[in-house]
Design goal:
4 copies of one chain form a homotetramer. By secondary structure, chain A is mostly helical. Chain A contains 10 helices and no strands.
């Protein structure tokens, strides 16, 4: 590959990343639209109604953390790419189409958090998103799109950070048959509480 | 053109592309707002209601794929530009004004998928978007804005990828007079199923 | 100013422009949320209802063209900057706060296009946006933030393109006292029809 | 650190900043969705209804100024970074999760501006956002992520601009027990009226 092509390739990759970042930024920000201002009618108090928002707020912060974590993994993996092809573009679009569903599945969770099928829908979309993400990293490695210096980090991501989220959410689906709240407790513990120190080692 | 002007031109083009990517990223993400959380009343089950969302989800993935494909073509064509002018800016804005309509026409399709005029509206907007896109590529070539190295790829895009979407959607309009569902089947087959391998050859 | 500071200044300016582009891209895309899917009840036909959307679509394309034109002017003026300061940041934020109102005033126009006060509100916000934009360009020139090579172009923008939109909209306000539709006709003629050829001369 | 790693680090930081700018741009633009087109029924006049929007517009401009000010501080502090780590990424995400809440707390304020708990919610979220922002700056300094040339400016931001907003909003919470409007007057005076001249000294 000559220098000019390489430079153009780098610009292209930059634009792909910029588009992806835009989609992530919008999807994470749209989460706020799920929070509904309570309507205070009769003799109920606004204080009480605002306090009752905590499950919606918990779902908001959980989804924010999940989408943020997806972005972090994407960010780290794409920083190691030195080329890409049409299949990778297609996988990236498919991946984004699941990430963009998160504000919707969060809204389902907000509304029907005590229903098993709401919990399974939420976990299912995140499992799928995580699997496509994992496939994208594996494909990048196999097709030789990862810069030699970054191969170890990407391979580690494919084994670790990128698989962590889909495994947690896949495992949480059967738990929903015990109780929806058990599933949610599992998410909060395993997603929010995962030691940040892991991410320091880069 | 001296080096300074050339550098400024490159920055300008970068900003035009960044703005366009932003609009694409937002339009594709707003598609999620069309998905409505079902309201479960009486003795109906949430499971059933969620399963009944499949036509909305199909419309979501179809529009995501169409807008994503538009972005890919734009991305490839603009990577080959080395200059631009006011007409190209105007055509690009006109093109974006049709792309941004897609979340709206998708919502019409969600609500009235069995009405012929909903299907025709959806196909019509995409046909127009595709035609403006095609005109933009033709104009770039004719006005000498395409880098010599990229002329062949752009000319191929003008004949191929860029015309594919408007032709599919234009041809699908008369099919709607047979049955709206026949039109939709045609879209899914021809848009989602178009071999990705084509995109690998870059 | 030493080379390091200059480089940092350029990065800063790049980030300011990226943030501004993001706001423009979102504001222009949110215009689509004003289009309401018609509800077909009783014996009315979807075809008729869709055709009745034309005033909403006209307002959509008008606002898209206005925001797009604002972006073009901003783009051209900021391409000529080589530094900025806190006042320019403040003016830019104030300017954006009026641009972001456009989806709202467009919605007012959609709903009450035959009311004089709706038309005046729409024109008033655009007049204010245009004036802040003009003040921003004047300030950039006076404070020496414009690169010497770009001074003529910026001064021309301050006299021409940047003043065109606020003058058209300011003059259209008294016309609303004749009839709201006369005002709208004036906008369409003067904004959409302004020769694109002007923009080619860069 | 070798040159290649340094270059990759710079790209990474650029992508982090681009993502953050995207979130800020969307959050600030979503504020417009809180403005509701008045419904004119019976014999009330649109003029009157539009004039009655002033508290909503005031809340809009206040939140726009607050989010804009947050962005300015972020912009200035991140311009001085030459590296980052996982903790900083985590703090930045936590910070963004509070910034993204602003359109929601603004909507609460729009609807229940005369309720003490609405005012406290609004001030509370901004206090938290400001504290996380302050912690992020402090951490950057302590962990050695700030470029030596920028250390003084960042330390000054940590003592000044970054603490100003959370202190104003924290102090305004007890004032809400006197009257909600006293709190709001305090915000407008202290946030909107803070001399812009401060920002010129960079």
């Amino acid at each position: 590959m000559e220098a000019g092509t390489r430079a153009r390739e780098a610009t292209d990759l930059g634009r792909l990343v910029a588009f992806t970042d835009g989609v992530f930024a919008i999807a994470i920000t749209l989460l706020v639209l799920n929070l509904d201002v309570p309507s205070v009618t009769g003799d109920r108090d606004l204080d009480d109604e605002l306090l009752k928002l905590w499950p919606e707020l918990l779902a908001y912060f959980l989804s924010f953390a999940v989408v943020g974590r997806f972005w972090l993994v994407h960010h780290r993996v794409f920083a190691g790419l030195h080329s890409f092809d049409g299949w990778l573009l297609g996988l990236n679009l498919a991946y984004l189409s699941f990430v963009v569903l998160v504000p919707f599945t969060t809204e389902i969770l907000d509304t029907y958090g005590d229903h098993r099928s709401a919990v399974i829908t939420y976990a299912g979309v995140l499992t799928l998103a995580g699997l496509v993400n994992w496939a994208m990293i594996r494909y990048s490695l196999d097709a030789g799109h990862v810069h030699p210096d970054a191969r170890d980090a990407s391979a580690e991501a494919a084994r670790g950070a990128a698989l962590y989220v889909p495994i947690v959410f896949a495992l949480s689906i059967p738990v929903a048959f015990i109780h929806p709240y058990a599933t949610m407790a599992m998410w909060v513990l395993l997603v929010l509480a995962r030691p940040l120190s892991r991410r320091v080692r880069r």
